[in-house]
Structures are given as C-alpha cells and as structure tokens.
Write a structure and sequence with these properties.
By secondary structure, this protein is mainly alpha-helical. It has helices at about 5-25, 30-35, 40-55, 55-70, 75-100, 105-110, 115-145, 150-200, 205-210, 220-230, 245-260, 260-265, 275-310, 320-325, 385-390, 395-435, 440-465, 470-495, 500-525, 545-565, 570-580; strands at about 330, 380. Helix 4 (about 55-70) crosses helix 16 (about 395-435). The termini are far apart.
C-alpha cells in the first residue's frame, strides 16, 4: 500500500480512538472540565503530562534543530528536561496543596488582588498563544506532506480537529485522550529509530547506535564531523554559542517549563499530593524515553540527508525529496547550471521564509526567488527532519505513516492542553471571578467553550504566519513564561514577605521586557523592518535566552517593591507557611 493509504488508515484509527475517548469522557461539571474531577491515577496522569509536555516542538522540531545546529541544539534537551525536574520538585506539590485550578487563580489568591489575577491572565494568554502557534504550525507541516494539501489548509484541518475534542471533554476528555496520544507518539518516535539505528550501526538501541561504528569501522559521529567539514560547516560536535548564551537559553527553558500554565494544571487532576509527586516522577521517565532518543535521530537524519543529496543529479534524487518539494518545505535552485544539488555552508534563502516561484525550474524542481548568492543551492525546512527521516532511510510505508500519526498526536495533545488554559483563564479567572461572580456552572462551561473557539481562530492565524521554526517559536513561549510567572509563583511559595505590589510590578516589567526584546530581535517590528543581527544582542544573549535576564529583572523588581511597601495580611502569611508543611505533619501554629 502507498504511504498515503497507510497514513489515512493509521491517522483514521488513532483519531477514531481520540474522538471515542472524548465522547466517553464528556465533561458534566466545571470540575470535570477544568481538572477532570480530580480523580486521575498517577500512571495515567504521568502519561498525560508527558503527552501534554512533549509537543510538536519535542516530536517534530527538536531533533530537526539538533540535526542542523549539532552541539548548539543540545540546549533544548538540557533546558526542557531540567525544567521538568524543577517543576516536579519545587512547584507542583506546593501548588497542589494550595488547591487552585489555574495559575492566575493561585496568583489572584496568594496576592489577594484581582489586579494581580488579571495581569496573570494576560501573561497566561500571551504564553499560551505563542506556544499554540508552534503546535498549529506542526500540524500544518504534517498534513501538508501526508494529505498532500497546502500547509495553510493543513492548519485549518488541525484547528477543526482540536476544536472537537477540546470542546466536548474539557480536561477530563483531554486527559484520557492524551494517554492514548502518548502511546501513539512514543511508538511512532521509537520504531523508526530502532530500524535506522540497526540499519546504520548494527545496534538496535538508538542511544548506543549514535556512539557506534558505521560500515568501514568509522565512528558515526566522526563520520558526520568529516562530512560537515567537507561541506564547509563547522564540526557537528562543536558548538558556536558562547557559554553565557548556552546557560541563558538552558535556564530560560528550565524556569519557563516550571511556569507553564498547561503543565502545572495537570497536578490538580490527581486525588492526593502524594499522587502529584508520583505522577511527576512517572512523567519524567516517559519523557526521558523520547528525549534521550532525539539526538540519535538527529545524527541519523543529518548523515542520511547529506549522503542522499550531496552532488546528486537532480534527475536522480529519490522520491522522498520530490514529495517534500510538493509540500513547499524543500526547494532547490540550480545556481551554477550543472544540474547537481550543491549543499554547502551558507544561507540558501534571503530572509526567514522562502518565496517560491510559481513556475517550476528546467527539471521540474521547486525554485526560490529570494535565493542568496552563497554556493548553497538547497533550502530544507528544519521541521521536516523527523518526518522525512523514515523515507530517507527507505523504511516500509507503514512506518512512514506511523510517524505522521505520532507527529499529529504530539501537536494536538499539547494544543488541546493549551487551549484549555486559554479558555479557563477567560471563563474562570476573568468572567466568573471578576466580571460576573453569580454566573451559573452551566454558563461558565459555555463561556469556556466559546473562549476555546476564539482561541483556535487566533492560534490558526499564527500557525499560518509563524515567527520561525516550531521549536524556536516554542522557546520564545518558555521565555515569556520565565519572565512573567516563575518569579511570582516561586516567591509566592517561599517568601512570606512577598506582597501584591511586588508581584504585579515584577510580572509587568518582566513580560514587557521579554516582549520588547522578542519583537525587536525576532521580527524587527521595532526600530527596523528586519530582525536585528546577533552583534546587537544585549550582553550577547539570544532572544531564546533573554527570558533569563527578564526573569532576573522581575525578581529584583518584585523583591525591592515588596520591601518598600506594606507586608501582606497576616492570613496570607499563614497560608504561605502552611503550604510548605507536608500533609500530615501537623499544622503551623496559629498566632
């Protein structure tokens, strides 16, 4: 059977499963809708958390970025894994004990202020929209290749699907759908990795295969370094980022993870605090399976890509190349007229996005009108590396289709979790808590569903016009979370003296600074029409790492302002003291 037939079958089966679960787990109350009724087992919650957290960025884009940037891409691995540990140890148990549905709810109550709650809602919306744009882009990439439709139409199809299961089930439907999606995405990620590792190195375990030898006895990584230097790239295992920037990006991703509203809310879906800790540990195990495999897949894909296209006559390129050309994610412009693909160091395109010519080239190839003068003739979108990998390695058609199903599971599970955060922020924290406190439970559920509809339309727009690759967009969302939420949450738990004035000032300064930097250095809307070059970065910090600086500024502003204004009320200080005492260890002495 063809790849397309297999894709329809596998995507059809997995989607039927997701829809079946969404209908079975329909939300009957706001507690079901927001936190799945608080009755999810640690094992199921661990899987759901892993699926929620491993988005299209982890599944589709992370290995793609490592594959193109080599050692420099490892910051994503370190930051996202480290962040999860930080979240499980420092935040989840305390927030669970505080007993709030959402991060704005925690901030509103801890800082005894509706202004703080509103600022937190705005931050949650900014973070979630930036993040969900990356997921929608991932869905578009998968659909455009495997259903052979335009990438924008792919985004529209994805929007319609997410709407159905987020709309029906709320958190209860999403939790059990995510358990199924975790199983699909991890199977889809690992099967090709086993195949390709065996094919290239004779070792079925990809993590070991990456350090193994290829034909001729050369180590795989040595071979890739050699291929890289022959093409004029720096060695694959060498980094070009400064130590400070690596540290800044890793820390921003870590604390951004810890401040991500859609992951924190998962810890409210289990019955007890003990279960929250257990599910955090299980989720880490489930996440580690994919994260330790991603660098291996990056190495396999990069080696295969270079060996397939380097100095190849265009007329002899394999079928996978032309399939991806049709989706607009690969293009070749024959600059020297020799009919061969020259793939060397240097930017193939001028600007962030390729501008494709309507007419095909002499050989029927996809050509670009904004090609640069560099000798590099090939444009490859980084987001295709994981999806194209099984095709490049000539694996069976069902494996290729399985990866498509896995990519969709990863993107859709996170998109659904994020849309829920957006809808609860609007319906629970804005409408119910502030605008209309007497709103009935039914009215609140409807408000949440209407908010989801609006959120999907905005997310779809950003999915069609993303500010970069999936992982880069998602990294910016982590920067925004680090700059806004993390200090307010962590100081709220560990600093009794932290008051509403400090928290509000810190969040506003942090997120404004991060937004300014992101817009100036990623989109160039401020001060110039193109993004500013790396030579102009403040303190040599990339936009992906700037969340660290914005977070530190937020902490300083929060602490200074809180010490210059009056202390929080006594009952709030007692709550903070109580949160930190383990359940069953007796209560804090009341004064």
């Amino acid at each position: 059977m063809s790849v397309q037939t297999w894709t329809w079958i596998l995507v059809g089966i997995t989607f039927a499963l997701y829809f079946g679960i969404a209908i079975w787990a329909r939300a009957g109350s706001t507690k079901d809708f927001y936190v799945a009724g608080g009755g999810v087992s640690p094992l199921a919650n661990g899987m759901a958390t892993a699926a929620d957290w491993m988005s299209a960025a982890s599944f589709i884009s992370m290995a793609g970025i490592i594959s193109f940037t080599g050692y420099d891409g490892s910051v994503y691995l370190m930051g996202w894994t480290g962040g999860y540990v930080l979240l499980a140890l420092l935040l989840a148990p305390y927030l669970r004990k505080f007993g709030k549905f959402t991060v704005p709810d925690f901030i509103g109550d801890r800082y005894y202020s509706n202004t703080a709650r509103t600022v937190a809602v705005i931050c949650a919306l900014l973070v979630s929209f930036t993040y969900v744009a990356g997921q929608m882009r991932g869905v578009g990439v998968v659909f455009s290749r495997f259903l052979e439709v335009d990438i924008n139409l792919g985004v529209v199809i994805g929007m319609a699907i997410v709407l159905v299961f987020a709309f029906l089930g709320g958190m209860k439907g999403i939790t059990y759908t995510q358990v199924a999606q975790y199983c699909v995405l991890i199977f889809a990620f690992m099967v090709p990795a086993f195949f390709i590792s065996m094919q290239m190195t004779g070792n079925i375990i990809p993590q070991l295969g990456m350090g193994g030898s290829v034909e001729g006895g050369e180590l795989l990584l040595d071979k890739l370094d050699r291929l890289h230097t022959e093409l004029g790239f720096k060695e694959y295992t060498d980094g070009s980022k400064s130590t400070w920037d690596v540290f800044a990006i890793t820390l921003a991703l870590m604390v951004g993870t810890a401040g991500l509203p859609h992951v924190i809310v998962r810890f409210f879906t289990v019955p007890k605090v003990k279960d929250a800790r257990k599910s955090a540990g299980l989720a880490l195990l489930f996440i580690a399976i994919l994260y330790t495999t991603a660098p291996a897949i990056a190495v396999f894909a990069r080696t295969n890509l270079i060996e397939t296209v380097r100095d190849t006559e265009y007329t002899e390129v394999p079928a996978w190349f032309k399939n991806w050309e049709d989706s607009g994610l690969i293009a070749w412009t024959d600059k020297n007229g020799d009919g061969k693909i020259q793939y060397v160091a240097g930017g193939a395109i001028d600007g962030k996005k390729p501008i494709f010519n309507e007419a095909r080239g002499v050989y029927g190839e996809r050509t670009i009108s904004n090609a640069t003068d560099s000798a590099n003739e090939l444009y490859v979108d980084r987001d295709i590396m994981v999806l194209a990998n099984p095709e490049i390695a000539k694996l069976p058609n069902w494996v290729i289709a399985l990866v498509a199903a896995g990519g969709l599971a990863a993107a859709l599970s996170t998109a659904a979790g994020l849309l829920l955060v957006i809808s609860t922020s609007i319906s629970h924290d804005l409408i119910k808590k502030q605008i209309k406190p007497d709103l009935s439970e039914k009215g609140e559920l409807w408000a949440a569903r209407i908010a989801i509809l609006g959120a999907i339309l905005v997310a779809g727009y950003f999915g069609m016009n993303p500010p970069g690759f999936v992982a880069a967009v998602v990294a910016l969302a982590f920067g925004l979370a680090a700059a806004s939420f993390f200090p307010a949450i962590i100081l709220g738990i560990f600093d009794k003296r932290m008051n509403k004035q400090g928290a509000i000032a810190g969040m506003i300064v942090g997120i404004t600074l991060m937004l300014f930097y992101m817009i100036r250095y990623k989109t160039g809307l401020i001060g110039a029409f193109d993004p500013r070059p790396a030579s102009e970065w403040w303190f040599g910090t990339s936009p992906e790492g700037f969340g660290t600086i914005a977070m530190l500024v937020n902490v300083i502003v929060s602490v200074v302002v809180s010490r210059m204004t009056s202390a929080p009320p006594q009952h709030v200080q007692e709550i903070v003291e109580n949160i930190r005492i383990p359940s069953g260890a007796g209560e804090a002495h009341s004064h």
